[in-house]
Amino acid sequence: MSIDVLMPALSPTMEEGTLAKWHVKKGDQVKSGDVIAEIETDKATMEVEAVDEGTVEDILVPEGTEGVKVNAPIARLSGEDSGSAPPPPKADPAKAEAPTAEAPKPAPEPAPQPAEAKAAPTPAPAKATDGGRVFASPLARRIAEQKGIDLSGVTGSGPHGRIVKADVETAKPGQARGPAPGQPQPAPAQAPAAPRQVQSLEQQGIAAGSYDLIPLDGMRKTVARRMTESFRDVPHFPLTIDLEIDNLLAARSKINGILGNDARVSVNDMVIKAVAVALKRVPEANASYTPEGIAMHHHADISMAVAVPGGLITPIIFQAETKGLAQIAKEAKDLAERARSKKLKPEEFQGGTFSVSNLGMFGIKNFASIINEPQGAILSVGVGEKRPVVRGDQLAIATVMSVTLTCDHRVVDGAVGARFLSAFRALIEDPITMIV
Amino acid sequence: MDFDVIIIGSGPGGYVTAIRAAQLGLKTAIVERELLGGICLNWGCIPTKALLRSGDIYEQLGHLGDYGLSAENPGYDFTKVIARSRKVASQLNSGVAFLMKKHKIEVIEGTAKLEKGSPAPKVVVALKAGGSRTVQAKHVILATGARARTFPETGLVPDGDRVWTYREALVPKTAPKRLIVIGSGAIGIEFASFYRALGSEVTVIEMLPRILPVEDEEVSKAAHKAFEKRGIKFRVPASVKTLTKSKTGVAVEIEVGGKAETLEGDVAIVAVGIVGNVEDLGLEALGVKVERTHVVTDSHGATGVAGLYAIGDVAGPPWLAHKASHEGVHCIEQIAGQNPPNINAPIPGCTYSNPQVASVGLTEAQAKEQGLEPKVGRFPFRVNGKAIAMGETEGFVKTVFDGKTGALIGAHMIGAEVTEMIQGFALAMTLEATEVELQATVFPHPTLSEAMHEASLDAYGKVLHI
């Protein structure tokens, strides 16, 4: 019996991914637990383990194929039960036409467009993402081409979701699948960002050949889409305060003196800890807006923005309010490293209740981040630098760090944000209170 | 509640709807005042095809020499020709009765009238067997069909003797020696073709500038020529002033090209259009909207009166059996919550004369009227191998594509067996094919259908065999 190995879903929302690498080849023996392939999504690379034993009968999706649909067969194993599955008789032209009961089908050549060929049949509307097969009538395809409509963004009204003439006639050029109106929290599906720009660069006076075009990868598309949706759909506002961090730096020195070089704590780690504790003190700031109501999160799961080649990713320190600084520092370091090498597991970057983004190391004084939906707020941390401060009527010098809280006004009002920042200030300026 | 659905009329609209209703698990009844199968099976599509077959074969006998064949004294027995046609109709009529029984559809024989009711109008049936029966269903579908239009003021009223409609024309005792056909739509042309094949002197009068006026102009022109070649005479465009009857025949006064003319014949067939059967159904009292003898409905057949629907001829043109069946199935599936696919399927039309005429979609002129820039292809049967082998080289295939999108928007054919081929173009249009798919489709050789392929190629300058 042959067993199809299916494209795994690395996360509940994953629709497709790239088959990055095969660790096995045709004819290899595999047993349960063997790593057979690496799958890449826009955010992570995952290893696929064999769940069955057998011989790799065929690789159905070649290495490097993008847009492989979840559940599409990617390889075929011939199982142990070889008695009922004799290998197909070879090279006997006389018998070639005799149907062999239960014999595996002749191994198909790897299709040039496996994602298309192997797309799992689904009765759902033809909302295919990149690389998936779009069911559309010939005329609909022609009109879409003429109007510059991306069919993957059109919902088909025909039988089995087939896109017909009427669907493309009502579609607008450049239209892609966007959130339905009134749907404030679009599913984090890996849909392409709406290509709002209809005119080509050429049409806008930038000569062809005067630039290199880097294709949009999954991460770039996701960043583009999520940030566009958030900035457009979330009513957001910034609140900025300056913090004196000399006490914090002194505390950090002491702590690092104790922990030693292997486990040094950064300012950012202390910011994460302070944010987590502040969120426990002002729980209204640890909340998400949903159409059904305000979700008050039980824990402060802090997403920390990590710049990675080609984009950024936000791995999470879960339940940061329960963790000591040393633990946070250790986790943060590990997560950041694995983020840069694309080894994060989906559950390590999906979720989070509050984000921290720190550009202090680049000398940025102050900035306001875009909300990371569905979180209610994000804290942008600037550089800590010596600045003149006024004490009483005296001018003095202190190490000052500006932070800006961007709030989703649907869930975090101005006063809530201010209370959170006040609690945060107390913790940062008097770090010993963090351990209370 | 007696039934889930009651269908009034058992023509190709009604009985097909009833079968589909039963398949969907609905308790169904159908009311028929005359014969199961309606006009189509009993007095229309089917018996005329039987007659035309006799006519075609008889006409072929006149050309036996072309095929190297001979026969002595070919002739016909008109009574037997008619009897065969009736037998065919009767066989299909029993077929419908069987289908009703098989699907456990109750057939109520009688004439229905609607009265106010809830959730749908009540159906009061004056039973054929006497008495009356009132039945209530959740849904009532009108499928009462249509009948020949008549003009009493000019004498265009059938009398069963000298003036016929399709109905009398199907069962005469003898073939008229001189026949005048008023109206050159499909019905008029088919009778003209049949009686001409049997040797009648036939004159067809058409009020509009060309015969088969709904067809593409080129097809009308070719048909005119082909029929003239067979000896049919035309008066086009001509208006009928009066029709007067005598004991031995009819005299039809017409005006053609501004001049008056009187045509004399033994019999006149009135085929000047169709009116919906909307009378005596109680529609007015229910507030059903009727316009120009047809019930007004939405795209699912709903009339606006709760629980009342209308499909087929009574719901408006085109008056075609297949359109009625199509609407009926859609209507009942919608009622049953099946969400039938909303496909904009074009309705083909066929005329079973000799030569045959078939078309679907827009004519070239209609395409231009709609502001489209049609790309037109043509291919004559005279250079088609199979047509030459068959000795059927008359006619052509014409395709009309939207020049902008390449969509096939119309197809028009005249020639042998074209009524069997038009579905290919209908399928292409339903699937929204463009010239690319039609040109890429492999047509078997040798067939008449290769002309369809060539006409699709020709529209884009790629025709091969010319």
Layout of strands and helices, then pairs:
The complex is a heterodimer of chains A (about 425) and B (about 475).
Chain A: E1 2-6, E2 16-22, E3 29-30, E4 35-40, E5 45-49, E6 54-59, E7 65-69, E8 73-78, H1 114-117, H2 138-147, H3 165-170, H4 218-233, E9 236-244, H5 246-259, H6 267-281, E10 287-290, E11 293-296, E12 302-304, E13 306-308, E14 311-313, E15 316-317, H7 325-340, H8 346-349, E16 354-358, E17 377-391, E18 394-408, H9 414-429
Parallel strand pairs in A: 12-16, 16-17
Antiparallel strand pairs in A: 1-8, 2-4, 2-7, 3-6, 4-5, 6-8, 9-18, 10-11, 12-15, 13-14, 17-18
Chain B: E1 3-8, H1 14-23, E2 28-32, H2 38-43, H3 45-61, H4 78-102, E3 106-115, E4 122-127, E5 132-135, E6 137-142, E7 146-148, E8 163-164, H5 166-169, E9 178-182, H6 186-197, E10 201-205, H7 217-229, E11 233-235, E12 238-245, E13 250-256, E14 259-265, E15 267-270, E16 274-276, H8 283-286, E17 290-291, E18 294-295, E19 308-310, H9 321-335, E20 349-351, E21 356-361, H10 364-369, E22 374-380, H11 385-390, E23 396-402, E24 408-415, H12 418-430, H13 435-440, H14 450-458
Parallel strand pairs in B: 1-2, 1-6, 2-3, 6-19, 8-15, 9-10, 9-15, 10-11
Antiparallel strand pairs in B: 3-4, 4-5, 7-16, 12-13, 13-14, 17-18, 20-21, 21-24, 22-23, 23-24
Helix pairs in contact in B: 1-9, 3-4, 3-6
